[in-house]
Write a structure and sequence with these properties.
Elements (H helix, E strand, L loop, with lengths): L5 H26 L20 H4 L5 H12 L2 E6 L2 E6 L2 H8 L13 H6 L13 H13 L3 H31 L8 E4 H18 L4 H18 L4 H4 L11 H26 L10 H11 L9 H32 L2 H14 L15 H13 L9 E2 L4 E3 L2 E3 L4 E4 L1 H5 L46 H18 E4 L23 E6 L8
Parallel strand pairs: 2-7
Antiparallel strand pairs: 1-2, 3-9, 4-7, 5-6, 8-9
Helix pairs in contact: 7-8, 7-17, 8-9, 8-13, 9-11, 9-13, 11-13, 12-13, 13-15, 13-17
Protein name: Cytochrome P450
Family: Belongs to the cytochrome P450 family.
Cofactor: heme
Amino acid sequence: MENPPPLLILVPVFAAAFLLFAFIHKTSRRNKYVGRKVPEAGFAWPIIGHFHLFAANKRPTHHILSDMADKYGPIFRLRLGAREVVVVSDSQIAKECFTLNDAALAGRPESISAEHFSSNYAAFALAPAGPLWREVRKVVVLELLSTRRLDALRRVRQSVMKTLAQDIHRSWLEAGRKGQSCEVAVVLDMSEWYWKFFIGTMFQVLFGKLHEEEWSFAAAAVERFFSLMGATVVGDYLPWLRWMDIRGYEKAIKKTAKDMDNLMEGLLQAHKRERAGKSKDEEDFMDALISHFDCSKEIGNGFDADTVIRSTCLTLLGAGSDTTVTTLTWALSLVLNNEDVLKKIRDELDMHVGKERLVNDSDINNLTYLQAVVKETLRLYPAGPLLVPHEAQHDCTINNYCVFKGTRLLINASKIHRDPSYWADPDIFKPERFLTDQHREIDVRGKHFELLPFGSGRRICPAISFALESVQLGLANIIQGFDVRRPSSDLIDMSEALGLSVTKVTPLQVLITPRLPFHLYL
Protein backbone atom coordinates (compact mmCIF):
# COMPACT_ATOMS: atom_id res chain seq x y z
CA MET A 1 0.00 0.00 0.00
CA GLU A 2 1.35 3.40 -0.98
CA ASN A 3 1.98 6.01 1.68
CA PRO A 4 -0.31 9.05 1.37
CA PRO A 5 1.32 12.24 0.09
CA PRO A 6 2.83 14.31 2.93
CA LEU A 7 0.48 17.21 2.13
CA LEU A 8 -2.61 15.10 2.81
CA ILE A 9 -1.20 14.16 6.21
CA LEU A 10 -0.63 17.80 7.09
CA VAL A 11 -4.20 18.92 6.23
CA PRO A 12 -5.95 17.23 9.20
CA VAL A 13 -3.04 18.17 11.47
CA PHE A 14 -3.35 21.84 10.57
CA ALA A 15 -7.15 21.68 10.84
CA ALA A 16 -6.96 20.16 14.33
CA ALA A 17 -4.35 22.71 15.36
CA PHE A 18 -6.53 25.57 14.09
CA LEU A 19 -9.61 24.32 15.97
CA LEU A 20 -7.56 23.86 19.15
CA PHE A 21 -6.15 27.38 18.83
CA ALA A 22 -9.62 28.84 18.27
CA PHE A 23 -10.97 27.02 21.32
CA ILE A 24 -8.06 28.14 23.52
CA HIS A 25 -8.36 31.72 22.26
CA LYS A 26 -12.08 31.85 22.97
CA THR A 27 -11.69 30.20 26.36
CA SER A 28 -8.79 32.44 27.40
CA ARG A 29 -10.66 35.55 26.25
CA ARG A 30 -13.64 34.65 28.39
CA ASN A 31 -11.54 33.42 31.31
CA LYS A 32 -9.86 36.81 31.31
CA TYR A 33 -13.16 38.19 32.58
CA VAL A 34 -14.06 35.41 35.02
CA GLY A 35 -15.79 37.03 37.98
CA ARG A 36 -16.48 40.18 35.97
CA LYS A 37 -19.56 39.13 34.03
CA VAL A 38 -22.64 41.23 34.64
CA PRO A 39 -24.46 39.83 37.72
CA GLU A 40 -27.33 37.56 36.77
CA ALA A 41 -30.80 38.00 38.25
CA GLY A 42 -32.14 35.15 40.33
CA PHE A 43 -34.88 32.60 39.63
CA ALA A 44 -33.70 31.50 36.20
CA TRP A 45 -35.12 28.16 35.05
CA PRO A 46 -33.32 25.59 32.89
CA ILE A 47 -33.64 26.23 29.14
CA ILE A 48 -36.07 29.18 29.35
CA GLY A 49 -34.00 31.19 31.85
CA HIS A 50 -35.95 34.20 33.17
CA PHE A 51 -38.59 34.01 30.46
CA HIS A 52 -41.22 32.80 32.93
CA LEU A 53 -40.97 36.06 34.91
CA PHE A 54 -42.41 37.97 31.94
CA ALA A 55 -44.56 35.49 30.03
CA ALA A 56 -47.29 35.22 32.67
CA ASN A 57 -46.93 38.72 34.15
CA LYS A 58 -49.63 41.22 33.16
CA ARG A 59 -47.60 44.27 34.18
CA PRO A 60 -45.69 46.35 31.61
CA THR A 61 -42.16 45.01 31.12
CA HIS A 62 -40.42 48.22 32.20
CA HIS A 63 -42.15 48.06 35.59
CA ILE A 64 -41.02 44.46 36.10
CA LEU A 65 -37.45 45.42 35.18
CA SER A 66 -37.58 48.46 37.49
CA ASP A 67 -38.51 46.23 40.42
CA MET A 68 -35.69 43.86 39.49
CA ALA A 69 -33.24 46.79 39.41
CA ASP A 70 -34.23 47.63 42.99
CA LYS A 71 -33.28 44.09 43.94
CA TYR A 72 -30.28 43.32 41.71
CA GLY A 73 -28.78 46.75 41.10
CA PRO A 74 -28.45 49.28 38.26
CA ILE A 75 -26.99 46.71 35.84
CA PHE A 76 -27.96 43.04 35.74
CA ARG A 77 -28.19 40.18 33.29
CA LEU A 78 -31.12 38.07 32.15
CA ARG A 79 -31.24 34.81 30.26
CA LEU A 80 -34.31 34.79 28.03
CA GLY A 81 -34.24 31.38 26.43
CA ALA A 82 -31.22 31.39 24.11
CA ARG A 83 -30.64 35.15 24.47
CA GLU A 84 -28.54 37.03 27.01
CA VAL A 85 -29.83 40.49 27.88
CA VAL A 86 -28.12 43.17 29.97
CA VAL A 87 -30.47 45.70 31.59
CA VAL A 88 -29.19 49.17 32.54
CA SER A 89 -31.19 51.38 34.90
CA ASP A 90 -28.67 54.09 35.82
CA SER A 91 -27.88 57.34 34.00
CA GLN A 92 -24.10 57.14 34.43
CA ILE A 93 -23.94 53.57 33.15
CA ALA A 94 -26.19 54.60 30.25
CA LYS A 95 -23.74 57.43 29.53
CA GLU A 96 -20.91 54.89 29.34
CA CYS A 97 -22.98 52.82 26.89
CA PHE A 98 -23.71 55.78 24.59
CA THR A 99 -20.26 57.38 24.67
CA LEU A 100 -17.32 55.03 25.34
CA ASN A 101 -19.19 52.00 23.97
CA ASP A 102 -21.38 53.69 21.39
CA ALA A 103 -19.81 51.92 18.41
CA ALA A 104 -19.64 48.54 20.14
CA LEU A 105 -23.32 48.69 21.12
CA ALA A 106 -24.70 50.16 17.88
CA GLY A 107 -26.14 46.87 16.64
CA ARG A 108 -29.82 45.97 16.53
CA PRO A 109 -31.00 42.51 17.61
CA GLU A 110 -32.95 40.38 15.18
CA SER A 111 -36.57 39.51 15.92
CA ILE A 112 -39.47 37.93 14.07
CA SER A 113 -41.52 41.13 14.05
CA ALA A 114 -38.57 43.27 12.90
CA GLU A 115 -37.74 40.75 10.17
CA HIS A 116 -41.22 40.96 8.63
CA PHE A 117 -42.03 44.62 9.26
CA SER A 118 -38.70 45.83 7.88
CA SER A 119 -38.55 43.54 4.82
CA ASN A 120 -35.69 41.57 6.35
CA TYR A 121 -34.04 44.61 8.01
CA ALA A 122 -34.20 47.04 5.09
CA ALA A 123 -35.66 49.70 7.45
CA PHE A 124 -32.80 51.87 8.72
CA ALA A 125 -34.11 52.02 12.30
CA LEU A 126 -33.92 48.23 12.61
CA ALA A 127 -30.97 47.58 10.27
CA PRO A 128 -27.51 46.58 11.51
CA ALA A 129 -25.05 49.45 11.92
CA GLY A 130 -23.57 49.09 8.44
CA PRO A 131 -23.56 50.74 5.00
CA LEU A 132 -27.35 50.59 4.52
CA TRP A 133 -28.05 52.20 7.90
CA ARG A 134 -25.52 54.99 7.31
CA GLU A 135 -26.74 55.72 3.78
CA VAL A 136 -30.47 55.81 4.55
CA ARG A 137 -30.03 57.77 7.78
CA LYS A 138 -28.01 60.37 5.85
CA VAL A 139 -30.80 60.67 3.27
CA VAL A 140 -33.45 61.01 6.00
CA VAL A 141 -31.50 63.81 7.70
CA LEU A 142 -30.79 65.66 4.44
CA GLU A 143 -34.15 65.22 2.73
CA LEU A 144 -36.66 65.07 5.58
CA LEU A 145 -34.98 67.06 8.33
CA SER A 146 -33.18 69.78 6.36
CA THR A 147 -34.10 73.42 7.04
CA ARG A 148 -36.02 73.65 3.75
CA ARG A 149 -37.97 70.48 4.40
CA LEU A 150 -38.68 71.36 8.06
CA ASP A 151 -40.17 74.68 6.93
CA ALA A 152 -42.45 72.74 4.60
CA LEU A 153 -43.25 70.31 7.44
CA ARG A 154 -44.30 73.19 9.66
CA ARG A 155 -46.65 74.54 6.99
CA VAL A 156 -48.22 71.12 6.57
CA ARG A 157 -48.54 70.64 10.32
CA GLN A 158 -50.11 74.09 10.74
CA SER A 159 -52.62 73.33 7.99
CA VAL A 160 -53.56 69.94 9.43
CA MET A 161 -53.76 71.45 12.93
CA LYS A 162 -56.26 74.04 11.73
CA THR A 163 -58.26 71.28 10.05
CA LEU A 164 -58.30 69.40 13.36
CA ALA A 165 -59.66 72.47 15.19
CA GLN A 166 -62.29 72.93 12.47
CA ASP A 167 -63.36 69.29 12.70
CA ILE A 168 -63.64 69.41 16.49
CA HIS A 169 -65.63 72.64 16.25
CA ARG A 170 -67.89 71.04 13.63
CA SER A 171 -68.55 68.10 15.96
CA TRP A 172 -69.53 70.55 18.66
CA LEU A 173 -71.94 72.35 16.30
CA GLU A 174 -73.47 69.06 15.16
CA ALA A 175 -74.06 68.08 18.78
CA GLY A 176 -75.96 71.36 19.19
CA ARG A 177 -78.09 70.70 16.11
CA LYS A 178 -79.00 67.30 17.52
CA GLY A 179 -80.65 68.97 20.47
CA GLN A 180 -77.74 69.59 22.78
CA SER A 181 -77.30 73.20 23.76
CA CYS A 182 -74.12 74.81 22.41
CA GLU A 183 -73.54 75.95 25.96
CA VAL A 184 -72.93 72.31 26.85
CA ALA A 185 -69.63 70.58 26.17
CA VAL A 186 -69.43 67.65 23.79
CA VAL A 187 -67.61 64.45 24.74
CA LEU A 188 -64.72 63.54 22.42
CA ASP A 189 -62.18 60.72 22.32
CA MET A 190 -58.99 62.78 22.00
CA SER A 191 -56.85 59.71 21.29
CA GLU A 192 -58.85 59.17 18.09
CA TRP A 193 -58.61 62.83 17.08
CA TYR A 194 -54.88 62.91 17.66
CA TRP A 195 -54.42 59.81 15.52
CA LYS A 196 -56.31 61.54 12.74
CA PHE A 197 -54.12 64.62 13.05
CA PHE A 198 -50.71 62.93 13.09
CA ILE A 199 -51.41 60.26 10.49
CA GLY A 200 -52.71 63.08 8.28
CA THR A 201 -49.59 65.16 8.89
CA MET A 202 -47.19 62.30 8.20
CA PHE A 203 -49.08 61.26 5.05
CA GLN A 204 -48.77 64.73 3.58
CA VAL A 205 -45.11 65.05 4.58
CA LEU A 206 -44.08 61.66 3.22
CA PHE A 207 -46.43 61.23 0.27
CA GLY A 208 -47.67 64.74 -0.54
CA LYS A 209 -51.34 63.88 -0.40
CA LEU A 210 -54.07 62.95 1.99
CA HIS A 211 -56.69 60.39 0.93
CA GLU A 212 -58.95 59.46 3.83
CA GLU A 213 -59.25 55.80 2.82
CA GLU A 214 -55.47 55.41 2.71
CA TRP A 215 -54.66 57.10 5.99
CA SER A 216 -57.59 55.44 7.81
CA PHE A 217 -56.25 52.07 6.66
CA ALA A 218 -52.72 53.14 7.63
CA ALA A 219 -53.80 54.31 11.11
CA ALA A 220 -55.37 50.92 11.88
CA ALA A 221 -52.35 49.08 10.47
CA VAL A 222 -49.86 51.19 12.45
CA GLU A 223 -51.77 50.49 15.67
CA ARG A 224 -51.66 46.75 14.92
CA PHE A 225 -47.98 47.08 14.04
CA PHE A 226 -47.03 48.57 17.42
CA SER A 227 -49.20 46.08 19.27
CA LEU A 228 -47.48 43.16 17.52
CA MET A 229 -43.99 44.68 17.84
CA GLY A 230 -44.52 44.72 21.60
CA ALA A 231 -45.82 41.16 21.80
CA THR A 232 -43.74 38.44 23.46
CA VAL A 233 -43.02 36.05 20.57
CA VAL A 234 -41.67 32.77 21.93
CA GLY A 235 -39.71 32.06 18.73
CA ASP A 236 -37.53 35.12 19.36
CA TYR A 237 -36.11 33.54 22.51
CA LEU A 238 -36.47 29.82 21.78
CA PRO A 239 -35.69 29.70 18.04
CA TRP A 240 -36.22 25.93 17.80
CA LEU A 241 -39.92 26.53 18.65
CA ARG A 242 -40.46 29.17 15.96
CA TRP A 243 -42.05 26.65 13.58
CA MET A 244 -44.89 26.13 16.07
CA ASP A 245 -45.86 29.85 16.00
CA ILE A 246 -47.21 29.66 19.55
CA ARG A 247 -50.28 31.94 19.96
CA GLY A 248 -50.20 32.71 16.23
CA TYR A 249 -48.18 35.92 16.49
CA GLU A 250 -46.01 35.32 13.42
CA LYS A 251 -49.07 34.69 11.25
CA ALA A 252 -50.62 37.98 12.44
CA ILE A 253 -47.31 39.80 11.95
CA LYS A 254 -46.99 38.52 8.38
CA LYS A 255 -50.53 39.63 7.52
CA THR A 256 -50.11 43.14 8.94
CA ALA A 257 -46.67 43.49 7.32
CA LYS A 258 -48.12 42.45 3.95
CA ASP A 259 -51.00 44.94 4.29
CA MET A 260 -48.61 47.79 5.07
CA ASP A 261 -46.16 46.79 2.35
CA ASN A 262 -48.97 46.69 -0.23
CA LEU A 263 -50.02 50.20 0.81
CA MET A 264 -46.45 51.48 0.44
CA GLU A 265 -46.05 49.72 -2.92
CA GLY A 266 -49.20 51.39 -4.28
CA LEU A 267 -47.96 54.81 -3.16
CA LEU A 268 -44.50 54.14 -4.61
CA GLN A 269 -45.79 53.15 -8.05
CA ALA A 270 -48.11 56.17 -8.11
CA HIS A 271 -45.16 58.44 -7.33
CA LYS A 272 -43.10 56.92 -10.13
CA ARG A 273 -45.92 57.57 -12.62
CA GLU A 274 -46.44 61.16 -11.50
CA ARG A 275 -42.80 62.26 -11.12
CA ALA A 276 -42.37 63.68 -14.61
CA GLY A 277 -44.83 66.51 -14.00
CA LYS A 278 -43.41 67.63 -10.63
CA SER A 279 -41.00 70.48 -9.99
CA LYS A 280 -38.29 70.25 -7.31
CA ASP A 281 -40.39 72.37 -4.95
CA GLU A 282 -43.35 70.00 -5.35
CA GLU A 283 -41.36 66.92 -4.38
CA ASP A 284 -42.37 65.10 -1.20
CA PHE A 285 -40.13 62.77 0.78
CA MET A 286 -40.93 59.66 -1.27
CA ASP A 287 -40.04 61.61 -4.43
CA ALA A 288 -36.72 62.60 -2.84
CA LEU A 289 -35.94 58.96 -2.01
CA ILE A 290 -36.75 57.86 -5.57
CA SER A 291 -34.45 60.55 -6.97
CA HIS A 292 -31.64 59.66 -4.58
CA PHE A 293 -31.71 55.91 -5.13
CA ASP A 294 -32.17 56.29 -8.89
CA CYS A 295 -28.77 57.97 -8.91
CA SER A 296 -27.21 55.61 -6.39
CA LYS A 297 -25.21 52.77 -7.94
CA GLU A 298 -25.27 50.55 -4.88
CA ILE A 299 -27.40 50.05 -1.78
CA GLY A 300 -25.90 48.31 1.25
CA ASN A 301 -26.85 44.78 2.33
CA GLY A 302 -27.98 43.83 -1.21
CA PHE A 303 -31.44 45.44 -1.12
CA ASP A 304 -33.11 46.88 -4.21
CA ALA A 305 -34.13 50.54 -4.17
CA ASP A 306 -37.89 49.90 -4.01
CA THR A 307 -37.57 47.75 -0.88
CA VAL A 308 -35.47 50.38 0.90
CA ILE A 309 -37.88 53.19 -0.08
CA ARG A 310 -40.96 51.27 1.09
CA SER A 311 -39.34 50.23 4.37
CA THR A 312 -37.99 53.72 5.10
CA CYS A 313 -41.35 55.42 4.53
CA LEU A 314 -43.16 52.78 6.55
CA THR A 315 -40.75 53.21 9.48
CA LEU A 316 -41.17 57.00 9.48
CA LEU A 317 -44.95 56.77 9.17
CA GLY A 318 -45.21 54.41 12.13
CA ALA A 319 -42.62 55.99 14.41
CA GLY A 320 -43.69 59.53 13.56
CA SER A 321 -47.33 58.85 14.36
CA ASP A 322 -47.59 56.37 17.23
CA THR A 323 -44.98 57.82 19.58
CA THR A 324 -46.20 61.40 19.07
CA VAL A 325 -49.85 60.50 19.61
CA THR A 326 -48.90 58.51 22.70
CA THR A 327 -46.94 61.42 24.22
CA LEU A 328 -49.65 63.96 23.43
CA THR A 329 -52.33 61.75 24.97
CA TRP A 330 -50.32 61.37 28.20
CA ALA A 331 -49.58 65.12 28.27
CA LEU A 332 -53.24 66.12 28.02
CA SER A 333 -54.21 63.46 30.59
CA LEU A 334 -51.66 64.80 33.08
CA VAL A 335 -52.74 68.40 32.49
CA LEU A 336 -56.43 67.59 33.00
CA ASN A 337 -55.62 65.80 36.26
CA ASN A 338 -53.75 68.92 37.44
CA GLU A 339 -56.04 71.90 36.94
CA ASP A 340 -53.45 74.39 38.20
CA VAL A 341 -51.16 73.30 35.36
CA LEU A 342 -54.00 73.68 32.85
CA LYS A 343 -54.63 77.23 34.06
CA LYS A 344 -50.95 78.18 33.81
CA ILE A 345 -50.74 76.91 30.21
CA ARG A 346 -53.90 78.77 29.23
CA ASP A 347 -52.72 81.99 30.89
CA GLU A 348 -49.37 81.72 29.08
CA LEU A 349 -51.14 81.21 25.75
CA ASP A 350 -53.47 84.16 26.34
CA MET A 351 -50.49 86.37 27.23
CA HIS A 352 -48.22 85.48 24.30
CA VAL A 353 -50.73 84.51 21.59
CA GLY A 354 -54.08 85.96 22.59
CA LYS A 355 -57.49 84.94 21.27
CA GLU A 356 -57.54 86.65 17.88
CA ARG A 357 -55.45 84.06 16.04
CA LEU A 358 -54.45 80.42 16.32
CA VAL A 359 -51.16 79.46 17.96
CA ASN A 360 -48.40 78.47 15.53
CA ASP A 361 -44.82 77.15 15.54
CA SER A 362 -43.26 80.60 15.89
CA ASP A 363 -45.00 81.03 19.27
CA ILE A 364 -43.50 77.94 20.91
CA ASN A 365 -40.21 79.59 21.98
CA ASN A 366 -42.21 82.04 24.11
CA LEU A 367 -44.24 79.28 25.79
CA THR A 368 -41.67 78.18 28.35
CA TYR A 369 -44.17 76.66 30.77
CA LEU A 370 -45.75 74.60 27.99
CA GLN A 371 -42.28 73.33 27.04
CA ALA A 372 -41.70 72.33 30.68
CA VAL A 373 -45.00 70.41 30.67
CA VAL A 374 -43.92 68.43 27.60
CA LYS A 375 -40.51 67.66 29.15
CA GLU A 376 -42.16 66.48 32.35
CA THR A 377 -44.53 64.28 30.34
CA LEU A 378 -41.58 62.71 28.51
CA ARG A 379 -39.89 62.13 31.87
CA LEU A 380 -42.84 60.34 33.45
CA TYR A 381 -44.25 58.62 30.35
CA PRO A 382 -41.59 58.22 27.65
CA ALA A 383 -43.27 56.68 24.61
CA GLY A 384 -40.57 54.00 24.63
CA PRO A 385 -39.88 53.34 28.33
CA LEU A 386 -37.33 50.72 27.25
CA LEU A 387 -35.24 52.31 24.52
CA VAL A 388 -35.07 50.45 21.21
CA PRO A 389 -32.86 47.42 22.02
CA HIS A 390 -29.16 47.49 21.15
CA GLU A 391 -26.83 44.56 20.52
CA ALA A 392 -23.10 44.29 21.17
CA GLN A 393 -21.26 44.07 17.85
CA HIS A 394 -18.10 43.01 19.65
CA ASP A 395 -16.91 42.48 23.24
CA CYS A 396 -16.84 45.57 25.44
CA THR A 397 -16.72 46.58 29.09
CA ILE A 398 -19.62 48.31 30.85
CA ASN A 399 -19.27 49.45 34.45
CA ASN A 400 -16.20 47.18 34.76
CA TYR A 401 -18.20 44.16 33.60
CA CYS A 402 -17.53 42.30 30.36
CA VAL A 403 -20.34 42.22 27.82
CA PHE A 404 -19.73 39.73 25.03
CA LYS A 405 -20.57 40.09 21.36
CA GLY A 406 -24.20 39.21 20.63
CA THR A 407 -25.48 40.29 24.06
CA ARG A 408 -28.62 42.42 23.90
CA LEU A 409 -28.82 45.70 25.80
CA LEU A 410 -31.95 47.26 27.27
CA ILE A 411 -31.83 50.79 28.69
CA ASN A 412 -34.69 51.25 31.16
CA ALA A 413 -35.36 54.95 30.52
CA SER A 414 -38.45 54.86 32.72
CA LYS A 415 -36.37 53.82 35.74
CA ILE A 416 -33.67 56.40 35.00
CA HIS A 417 -36.29 59.15 34.65
CA ARG A 418 -37.60 58.39 38.14
CA ASP A 419 -34.27 58.09 39.94
CA PRO A 420 -34.81 59.73 43.37
CA SER A 421 -31.09 60.49 43.69
CA TYR A 422 -31.45 62.98 40.82
CA TRP A 423 -35.13 63.91 40.63
CA ALA A 424 -36.92 65.26 43.72
CA ASP A 425 -40.37 63.70 44.13
CA PRO A 426 -39.72 61.58 41.03
CA ASP A 427 -43.25 60.16 40.75
CA ILE A 428 -44.98 63.55 41.00
CA PHE A 429 -45.99 65.55 37.91
CA LYS A 430 -44.18 68.82 38.49
CA PRO A 431 -43.39 70.83 35.30
CA GLU A 432 -41.92 73.63 37.42
CA ARG A 433 -38.83 71.48 38.05
CA PHE A 434 -37.66 72.37 34.50
CA LEU A 435 -37.88 76.09 35.27
CA THR A 436 -35.43 75.91 38.19
CA ASP A 437 -31.70 76.59 37.92
CA GLN A 438 -30.96 72.93 38.63
CA HIS A 439 -32.93 71.50 35.69
CA ARG A 440 -33.54 74.46 33.35
CA GLU A 441 -30.83 73.35 30.91
CA ILE A 442 -31.80 69.67 30.93
CA ASP A 443 -32.60 68.68 27.37
CA VAL A 444 -34.16 65.61 25.74
CA ARG A 445 -31.70 65.41 22.82
CA GLY A 446 -29.45 62.71 24.25
CA LYS A 447 -26.81 64.89 25.93
CA HIS A 448 -28.28 64.69 29.45
CA PHE A 449 -28.40 61.05 30.43
CA GLU A 450 -30.92 61.58 33.22
CA LEU A 451 -33.57 62.25 30.53
CA LEU A 452 -33.43 59.97 27.47
CA PRO A 453 -36.89 59.71 25.86
CA PHE A 454 -35.36 59.67 22.35
CA GLY A 455 -32.25 57.65 23.15
CA SER A 456 -28.67 58.81 22.66
CA GLY A 457 -25.55 58.06 20.67
CA ARG A 458 -25.38 57.20 16.99
CA ARG A 459 -28.72 55.32 17.05
CA ILE A 460 -30.63 58.26 18.55
CA CYS A 461 -33.97 59.18 16.96
CA PRO A 462 -33.06 61.58 14.11
CA ALA A 463 -36.42 63.40 14.18
CA ILE A 464 -36.37 64.80 17.73
CA SER A 465 -37.07 68.41 16.69
CA PHE A 466 -40.05 67.45 14.56
CA ALA A 467 -41.49 65.21 17.29
CA LEU A 468 -41.08 67.85 20.02
CA GLU A 469 -42.60 70.61 17.91
CA SER A 470 -45.55 68.37 17.02
CA VAL A 471 -46.34 67.54 20.65
CA GLN A 472 -45.90 71.14 21.82
CA LEU A 473 -48.08 72.56 19.05
CA GLY A 474 -50.68 69.81 19.42
CA LEU A 475 -51.06 70.51 23.14
CA ALA A 476 -51.05 74.30 22.69
CA ASN A 477 -53.64 74.15 19.92
CA ILE A 478 -56.21 72.17 21.87
CA ILE A 479 -55.81 74.19 25.09
CA GLN A 480 -55.90 77.57 23.33
CA GLY A 481 -58.80 76.70 21.05
CA PHE A 482 -61.09 74.92 23.49
CA ASP A 483 -62.13 74.71 27.10
CA VAL A 484 -61.13 71.13 27.89
CA ARG A 485 -62.03 69.30 31.08
CA ARG A 486 -62.58 65.83 32.50
CA PRO A 487 -65.97 64.17 31.84
CA SER A 488 -66.51 63.76 35.60
CA SER A 489 -64.95 64.70 38.91
CA ASP A 490 -62.94 61.46 38.82
CA LEU A 491 -59.32 61.73 37.79
CA ILE A 492 -58.43 60.36 34.38
CA ASP A 493 -57.25 56.75 34.58
CA MET A 494 -53.47 56.67 34.06
CA SER A 495 -53.10 52.88 33.82
CA GLU A 496 -50.53 51.73 31.27
CA ALA A 497 -51.25 49.13 28.61
CA LEU A 498 -48.86 46.37 27.57
CA GLY A 499 -46.98 46.97 24.33
CA LEU A 500 -43.93 48.41 22.63
CA SER A 501 -44.95 52.00 23.39
CA VAL A 502 -46.50 52.91 26.73
CA THR A 503 -50.12 53.74 25.86
CA LYS A 504 -53.12 54.31 28.11
CA VAL A 505 -55.37 51.35 28.89
CA THR A 506 -58.48 53.52 28.45
CA PRO A 507 -59.19 56.11 25.72
CA LEU A 508 -58.80 59.76 26.70
CA GLN A 509 -62.33 61.16 26.71
CA VAL A 510 -62.81 64.88 27.40
CA LEU A 511 -65.54 67.50 27.57
CA ILE A 512 -64.85 70.29 25.13
CA THR A 513 -66.31 73.70 24.16
CA PRO A 514 -64.83 76.38 21.86
CA ARG A 515 -63.23 79.44 23.51
CA LEU A 516 -62.10 81.51 20.49
CA PRO A 517 -64.06 83.76 18.08
CA PHE A 518 -66.22 81.80 15.63
CA HIS A 519 -64.33 82.95 12.50
CA LEU A 520 -61.09 81.27 13.63
CA TYR A 521 -62.71 77.85 13.18
CA LEU A 522 -63.74 78.54 9.56
